[in-house]
Amino acid sequence: MKTVCIIGISGKLGQYMTQHCLDRGYAVHGVCRPESTAKLDRFKDRITLFPGRCDDRTVVAQALKGCDGVLTVLVPFGMTEYSTMTALAVLDQADPGARLVFSSGWHITRDGKDRYSLKLKAVVALFGPIGRLFRIGDIDDQVRACDRIFASGRDWTLVRGSDLEEGPSQGLPVWSDHVGDAVIAKNRTRRTDFAAFMVHALTAPDLNRRAPAISAA
Prior knowledge:
By secondary structure, this protein is α/β, with parallel strands linked by helices. The protein has helices at 12-23, 57-64, 82-93, 118-133, 139-151, 191-201, and strands at residues 3-7, 27-32, 47-51, 69-73, 99-105, 155-161, 164-165, 174-176, 189-190, 213-215. Helix 1 (12-23) crosses helix 6 and helix 2 runs parallel beside helix 3. The strands form 3 sheets. A 6-stranded parallel beta sheet has the order 3-2-1-4-5-6, with helices on both faces. It has a two-stranded parallel sheet with strand order 7-9. A two-stranded antiparallel ribbon has the order 8-10.
């Protein structure tokens, strides 16, 4: 792994992933909205930014050139299929052989075998309609985006994050193929460790074409 592109680099998760990539000696490209570039000022001499929306295929194509790894934050933003179009921009345009790692929440399921708590079911049931009503975001858009990833022939990993919190690292999270397994019962991950797992997945063959659900040990 030499050059990594981070789609959604200006958010908290994106900034943590940037630091982890730089710590590993990777060159970093990044895509974020022009109004968010100032958030990355501390990295500006060490990364290459491509200002634009993450679902803008032209901007994403430019940022992906020469990258052998791609880290994508899937955000169900607005009502314009933002997550789906972001995922497709990466899946369709990343260099052949590039390792693609995407982020989502626990609510995404690949095979229907995840076992969700009543609390998580209630949150999804409540905020899905509210987000669509006020046109804030569409959780179902993230579901559709992940279905596209699962169906693709690319080398992908979808990292499904538990509840996130700030704080110093607690080490690389543990993971399981299914939500509800005892190993991830804690359902809590430091955001910096979520980012570290995303970067780790770039070079982890055992995570290829899998959707690990993660949590602190």
